[in-house]
Design a protein that fits this description.
This protein is α/β, with parallel strands linked by helices. The chain is built from 11 helices and 8 strands. It binds 1,3-dihydroxyacetonephosphate (13P).
Length: about 250
């Protein structure tokens, strides 16, 4: 399976910076014929269309960092999956831990968002993962099992194939303390077994499970050398072109 490398810029970069990054990344990937992995850039909403224009016709996809689950109406400040599609989005991050903690998103809300994204023919990147306290209490498996059960409710085996699961332990996000490849493999194997139980072996073998949490050029090769880790969701280290390119190159076999 080709690795999926996703840049989550969070609330960073205006239009000018976003365009410049997209243009330079495109130039690099075309010049060096980068085909070993699939790359997705998730800028803030305000830069989506500008980044899409710069990347249109390239092998780099555009994703959003959030979505609202209704299709239209009186929901001031919200953006629907259809609107994201019209900006050129192919992917949408759903259930990021920052949205769960700062904006009180529950598994039930995230489930609605995942369904809305699928309904538009876009691909959700569903984030799950345990907090530091849960990690220390050694209840990681129970926590992610619960998240999977609720976030994937009502989603059939055909649709679930379009979902990417991102295992992002909250204690590893923005802390400089990444989970070890061994810890990630353990969690990913658990997630795959769970998917097999809910759906079937074929779905479990083909669903992409990526890791996020303090990925840097220094630890990316170790993480990506594992076949059970199908890529990465990169925050801080995706903001600088050079470090993001190093991470992309770490995904080469
Ligand atoms: P960092 O790479 O900055 O730890 O962020 C990870 C993340 O939250 C990606 O969605």
């Amino acid at each position: 399976m080709r690795k999926l490398i996703v840049a989550n810029w969070k609330m960073n970069k205006g239009i000018v910076q976003s365009q410049q990054f997209a243009e330079e990344l495109r130039e690099y990937t075309e010049k060096h014929k980068i085909t070993h992995c699939e790359i997705v850039i998730c800028p803030p909403y305000t830069s989506l269309e500008a980044v899409h224009r710069k990347l249109d016709g390239s092998s780099i996809a555009v994703g959003a960092q959030n979505v609202f689950y209704e299709t239209s109406g009186a929901f001031t400040g919200e953006v629907s999956a259809g609107m994201l599609k019209s900006c050129g989005c192919e992917y949408v991050i759903t259930g990021h831990s920052e949205r769960r903690s700062y904006f009180h998103e529950t598994d039930a809300i995230i489930n609605k968002k995942v369904m809305a994204v699928l309904d538009e023919g876009l691909k959700p990147i569903l984030c799950i993962g345990e907090t530091l306290q849960e990690h220390e209490d050694k209840i990681t498996e129970a926590v992610i099992e619960e998240q999977i059960n609720h976030c994937l409710a009502h989603i059939d085996s055909d649709s679930v194939r379009n979902i990417v699961i991102a295992y992002e332990p909250v204690w590893a996000i923005g802390t400089g303390k990444n989970a070890t490849p061994h810890q990630v493999e353990h969690a990913h194997n658990f997630i795959r077994r769970k998917i097999k139980k809910i759906y079937n072996e074929d779905v479990a073998n083909n669903i992409r499970i990526i890791y996020g949490g303090s990925i840097t050029p220094d630890n990316a090769s170790d993480l990506f050398s594992s076949n059970t880790i199908n890529g990465g969701l990169v925050g801080g280290a995706s903001l600088e072109l050079e470090s993001f390119i190093q991470i992309i190159n770490s995904a080469k076999k």
